[in-house]
TrEMBL record:
This is Histidine N-alpha-methyltransferase. Catalyzes the SAM-dependent triple methylation of the alpha-amino group of histidine to form hercynine, a step in the biosynthesis pathway of ergothioneine. One of its GO terms (molecular function) is L-histidine N(alpha)-methyltransferase activity. Pfam families: Methyltransf_33. Monomer.
Amino acid sequence: MSPFLLTRTLPEDATDADLRTDVLHGLTRTPKVLPPKWFYDARGSELFEEITRLPEYYPTRAEREILIARAPEIAAATRARTLVELGSGSSEKTRHLLDALAPELDSYVPVDVSESALTAAASSLLDERPALSVHALIADFTRGLALPGTPGPRLVAFLGGTIGNLLPDERAVFLKSVRSLLAPGDALLLGTDLVKDEETLIAAYDDAQGVTAAFNKNVLSVIDRELGADFDPGDFDHVAVWDRGHEWIEMRLRARSALTVKIRELDIAVSFEAGEEIRTEVSAKFRREGVRRELAGAGLNLREWWTDEGERFALSLAAA
Ligand code: AVJ
């Protein structure tokens, strides 16, 4: 049996306390907002996996195309002995990297807030690669990270375009904290979705089958269950908007009529005017120059920029 360690850096009840604070603050301000991380309970994670298979949702396929094409170059450039993956989820695309990095690779450190995703991903990996040490971390990587003392060089991967869910100031803080994890010779592999025509972007966030709408509304079911609220997801419409000034997609939930929701565990009632919206996600789209500048702002140098054939998505390799 190969080594498997699971370390929790989040207290068991952290999720609970964070959800309460986020909902209290987000729904009592104007305009109303909720952070996207609350989409991902078991049902939401399933819906997200379904999104990645939709014809309109190109980012997952585009990033996989780049990973398959470039994994050998990534391995040659980094010679990583430890692969750290932030927001590893199902670790599905990571297999291409793990294959290319073997046999030099010693340790895989998946980091995620979801314990169930980590244990499921780790157990299937361990079966396939008995020589690999897997040290899974249950952690919120936006809050600073302490990594296990596995051998360098390290490659830190942050895939899927999830960095786009952070606002520009949050990205600056996050990239500096990643930079602080890197020693000379270590590298960051960053996935970013790219600016493109509005029609393609909107379709990716408002698909014909309504899977993204269900994913968006799922956050209301999470609040109902966890905080004893009485949201009826049917009272809200899914909205996807392209903000061309900020170059990001916003997902929103729009109240179909004036209504009031009780949130028992917070002891509050939240009123909506007809048409009032909650912003539930920002998903920023990038250009090469912007990525280079943001990396440089955190002390990271862009070394390689790879896109898929359709130039829809990019993988950046950066060094400290
Ligand atoms: C997993 C955060 C990259 O922003 O595209 C998919 C989540 N939201 N459809 C994204 C998402 C709506 C996704 N990320």
